[in-house]
Design a protein that fits this description.
Strand content: under 5%
Number of strands: 0
GO molecular function, one term: D-glucose:sodium symporter activity
Number of helices: 8
Keywords: Membrane, Transmembrane, Transmembrane helix
Family: Belongs to the sodium:solute symporter (SSF) (TC 2.A.21) family.
Protein name: Sodium/myo-inositol cotransporter 2-like
Membrane topology: Multi-pass membrane protein
Distance between the termini: 20 Å
Length: about 210
């Protein structure tokens, strides 16, 4: 959650920061898991002494798992920010429409390959999906059903390759930015339902936890 939020709202987040933030968070989470389940606690009401060392009682026994998740979120956030700041940033031309503040940017995004070199052979993700990927028939049929349920255009609905090739990179970038425009009515419906769901979820977690 920490890395996801930073990646969307903070353009300075880079791969190294995200990686080490996740790895440190995972290591600390696994450490607590191992310590917590290394000791067999006596049954409630048995009167037997707690076999755990005092430091384990303090750092694990007295820290609720929801409180620990908040602590772990802060640690992951701090590590991701720190590592991102001491390592080279991602140039802005690679981030158009990939962050919240640039989601409607109409500038052409440069594609960044894994080794950091511009890969001109790989099409940008702003196109209609011209990459021809062979899929098993069952998987392809399932994808077709899911696309229809989610109102996503299928390959047969996409423009012919001749038309796609005539669309400039600037036009593709503009269309990708305009794609995010929402109908105000349904936008409000979704937002109101999201608030209701979050409120109910927070209440249920807080009440039963």
């Amino acid at each position: 959650c920490a890395v996801y939020i930073l990646a969307i709202f903070w353009e300075r987040t880079n791969e190294a920061g995200a990686f080490w933030g996740l790895m440190v968070g995972l290591a600390i989470g696994l450490l607590r898991f191992a310590v917590e389940f290394s000791y067999l606690l006596p049954a409630c009401g048995s009167g037997l002494p707690d076999p755990r060392p005092e430091i384990v009682k303090l750092l694990v026994g007295n820290v609720h798992y929801l409180h620990f998740s908040c602590i772990l979120w802060i640690i992951t956030l701090a590590v991701t920010i720190s590592v991102s700041l001491i390592t080279p940033p991602i140039p802005s031309q690679y981030l158009y429409r990939l962050t919240w503040y640039t989601r409607k940017d109409i500038r052409v995004r440069t594609h960044l390959s894994r080794d950091g070199i511009l890969d001109k052979k790989t099409p940008l993700n702003d196109s209609y999906g011209t990459m021809d990927i062979q899929e098993p028939q069952e998987v392809s049929r399932l994808h077709g059903i899911l696309k229809k349920l989610c109102c996503v255009s299928t390959a047969s609905d996409a423009p012919p390759e001749e038309v796609i090739s005539q669309v400039s990179a600037e036009q593709k970038a503009k269309e990708a930015a305009e794609f995010l425009n929402e109908d105000p009515y349904w936008k409000n419906v979704v937002n109101i339902n999201a608030i209701i769901c979050l409120t109910l979820s927070t209440f249920l977690i807080g009440f039963f936890a």
